[in-house]
Amino acid sequence: MPALTPRRDSFRIPKRRRHVPEARAQVQRILKDWALDGELAHDVATVATELVTNAVRHCRVTLAEVEVSLSIRGCGLLVEVSDPDKGKVPAPRTEGDGGLGLVLVAGLAERWGHEVRPFTKCVWAYFVVPGRRSR
């Protein structure tokens, strides 16, 4: 069983809806470069897209950028999406119009959460990489 080598890659996009597909494509490129594919890659890209969409939709800071980071940690992969609106933290909804993206995130990721950092809010999701061990 090959070990997971610690890695990290990140990029930024403008806080505009038209850049969400670009973010998904960039996540898919990173995963391909890391030789991660199949169902895991699809789930990671889907979750990253949901988190980026939420950041773009809910961040109230004008002309903000959204940062997407992927990193190998332990036996898994961490997706982090950060934006500068520290006052607006995510809250999953279970019914109603829209707002079910975090329910999807919870269903696909091993775990997820958020934290307020000095200059940003970060929403993250962690995925276990099957059949791998940490180095």
Molecular structure report:
- It is built from 3 helices and 7 strands.
- The strands form 2 sheets. Strands 2-3-4-6-5 form a 5-stranded antiparallel β-sheet, covered by helices on one side. A two-stranded parallel ribbon has the order 1-7.
- The protein is an alpha+beta fold and 135 residues long.
- It has one domain: Histidine kinase-like ATPase, C-terminal domain (Heat Shock Protein 90).
- The mean pLDDT is 90.
- α1 runs antiparallel to α2 (38-58) and α2 runs antiparallel to α3 (101-108).
- β5 and β6 form a beta hairpin.
Short description:
The chain is of the alpha+beta class.
Distance between the termini: 11 Å
Number of helices: 3
The main sheet comes to: 5 strands, antiparallel
Total E-strand runs: 7
Q: Tell me the structural class.
A: alpha+beta
User: Kindly state the mean pLDDT as a whole number?
Assistant: 90
Instruction: Give the low-confidence spans.
Output: none
Order of helices and strands: EEHHEEHEEE
Nearest-angstrom radius of gyration? 14 Å
Q: Choose one word for the global shape.
A: globular
- CATH level-1 class: Alpha Beta
The CATH homologous superfamily corresponds to Histidine kinase-like ATPase, C-terminal domain
Which sequence of strands runs across the widest sheet? 2-3-4-6-5
For the record, the count of structural domains works out to 1
Beta-strand content: 25-35%
What share of the residues lie within helices? 25-40%
CATH architecture: 2-Layer Sandwich
CATH topology: Heat Shock Protein 90
